[in-house]
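Please, structure for the following, as tokens.
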Amino acid sequence: MTDTIRNRRAAALPAKLSRSWLLVNAAKGEVFSEAQISESDSVIFDLEASVSDDKKLDARDNVVRALEGGMSAWVRINKMDSEFWDDDLAAIAMLPGLRGVMLPETERPEQVSYTAMRAKAGLPVIALLESAMGVENATKIAEAPGTFRLAFGTNDFRKDTGFSGDPMALAYARSRLTIASRMGGLPGAIDGPSAAAASDEHVREDAEVTHMMGMTGKLVLNVDQVVTLNESMSPSEDERDWARQLLEAAEGGSEITDGSYLPRLARAKKIASLASTYGLWNA
């Protein structure tokens, strides 16, 4: 385990630009290495939803050994009102490989701030919103000290509200996270995952919905879906071609033709920057 090194491209990518967030069952230490060398932009060791109560302590020990031994990851800790929350933070807060924590079932801004204070100064917290209350408080949570990004727990949100998984049914909730992230000055929100057994085609369709709703990251449950997800969440070839043509024209001294020119130029620059960051600008 100590010889495992995080995928160098992914390790160098700022978490604010992470497209794929791979959730890894922390009770299964044997799969940590595969996650570390995968193309997932960010890896999350999951101490919460995927781990039964009788395995929580062993899972925490797995995470501690991994983050002490050269691995790098985020950690989804247990919810704040559980018996495990405080000990989770105490065990991992100062580990060298910890990039930040994900707080499940976030419903109020003070939950994020208290978690950040309990951990250590400057530790980023991803607030996972999984209920009607969490979504309705999204802007307050986004503005809370310590909040790094918002994430959408689609399955638990559906359980709480009775919504179906149809994109139209979840459009309001997704748009709330996108707008709240903007209001809080945060990077784009992280969407919920595709089903673990979803095909590449289904992953692409889900990612298109995520992209349409203004979200810029997505949780992923299956390492085999990561490459498809990254491709789907990156500027497309058509977008890159459009941006390249506009930027080349601007460099050639093209004149402002109408009120849409400067916004289009700004969008082209953003596409170029993202494509360059993801290694796609010269692809």
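Residues 261-277 form the longest helix (17 residues). The chain has 13 helices and eight strands.
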